[in-house]
Write a structure and sequence with these properties.
single chain; 387 residues; mainly alpha
Length: 387
């Protein structure tokens, strides 16, 4: 391991603690999501600033586990009813508008393969980032939370499919066939989890809740590992496997005792939001290419413009999914939440740089806009809605 690894292993947990304390402290005046502090502290402590944390393979691996758990929790939190009926149709319509406009803007700015990268970035929503915010605000299960959940689900699910089909190593036709194969297998797993009772699983989970066996947590990791492995073997984006694993686990536990479900959720949340997910956000800040922006100072001026583009291209169409009878302020809050993006932007720009479709500076600008959206839009949405 590199010489800087011991320092990184010390600094990253301290940054995670500092982020949680900072979020709690500022809550007296304004509700700033903890992920904001995790991102900012990661940038400050990264190699392009203070240099306290280096980009190491070990942290990169932990970060990947973190994003997988983030998407797993997103899948387990999804209410299928919110994706049907009026809310679901309008969420898909909004995303269709966003991806068409985003790709159109992309062709104007960067013709060719880069246009797809830009379009996917501008049509994404950070559901995994929004879920902790909705949960902390007590909005999960409310009409507003269901609308944002539907917008976020479509805003992550749609781009993941687009990445798997258009940005993979196979041709779009072959990628579509492989995606259909994965969808059939995933659907079979979902139907199996939904139709058959799982009382024996529930009994094992209940009997090991307070023992060293912790079967529930091990089973969660097993379901996640199987579907992510399947996705990787088929050449589908692993985030799609993690998201599907969350849906399967939710269905496996749907008939369990409520106290058991809550206990299992608490344990998974502790593993995810207490450990691996913060590592992902801190490391995203560490990876942020600040030097590329410093070498091109004018690029800083483009970041807020991209954030505005996210608001117009992704946020405005997201307002279509606002709850029936919602006020203008609540519609605006749904739009602001829908325009909050980051994880998909990180994934898409990494692919774009790898394929030389966009430059590292352009990637840094889009990631910077994603960070800015996470910094600003949820706070403004909360203020607008609570005013």
């Amino acid at each position: 391991m590199a010489m800087s690894d011991p320092a990184s292993l010390l600094v990253v947990p301290l940054l995670m603690i500092a982020a949680a304390l900072a979020s709690r402290t500022t809550a007296r005046w304004v509700a700033v999501p903890v992920v904001v502090f995790e991102l900012v502290l990661g940038v400050v402590a990264g190699p392009d600033a203070l240099g306290w944390v280096d980009r190491t393979p070990f942290l990169a691996q932990l970060s990947q586990f973190g994003v997988l758990l983030l998407f797993f929790v997103a899948g387990s939190e999804i209410d299928a009813a919110s994706l049907r009926g009026r809310t679901g149709r309008r969420a898909w319509l909004g995303w269709a508008i966003s991806i068409c406009v985003g790709v159109g803007v992309g062709f104007v700015a960067e013709p060719g393969f880069g246009a797809l990268i830009i379009g996917i970035c501008l049509a994404s929503t950070a559901l995994g980032t929004l879920l902790p915010i909705l949960r902390d605000a007590g909005d999960l299960g409310t009409p507003f939370g269901s609308a944002v959940g539907a917008v976020g689900t479509v805003g992550e699910f749609g781009p993941i499919i687009a990445i798997s089909v258009f940005l993979g190593t196979r041709s779009p036709g072959m990628s579509t066939v492989v995606l259909v194969v994965f969808a059939v297998i995933a659907l079979a797993a979902i139907l199996h989890a939904q139709r058959r009772p799982h009382h024996r699983l529930h009994r094992i989970v209940e009997s090991t809740l307070h023992t060293s066996g912790q079967f529930a947590v091990r089973c969660v990791l097993g379901v996640l590992a199987v579907l992510v492995f399947l996705a990787l073997q088929l050449g589908v984006d692993m985030l799609l496997g993690a998201f599907t694993a969350g849906i399967v686990w939710r269905l496996l536990m749907r008939d369990a005792d409520e106290s058991t479900r809550r206990s299992v959720e608490a344990k998974v949340d502790a593993l995810a939001f207490g450990f691996l997910v913060p590592v992902f956000f801190v490391y995203t800040g560490v990876k942020f290419d600040l030097r590329a922006l410093l070498d091109a100072p004018l690029a800083f001026t483009v970041i807020p413009l991209i954030a505005v583009a996210l608001l117009l291209i992704r946020g405005v169409p997201s307002m279509l999914a606002a709850p029936d009878g919602a006020s203008r302020r609540e519609r605006a809050a749904v739009g602001l939440m829908g325009a909050t993006a980051l994880p998909i932007i990180v994934v898409a720009t990494d692919i774009g740089v790898e394929h030389h479709a966009i430059t590292s500076t352009e990637a840094a600008v889009f990631v910077g806009a994603g960070v800015l959206s996470v910094l600003v839009f949820p706070i403004v949405a909360t203020a607008v809605r609570n005013r």
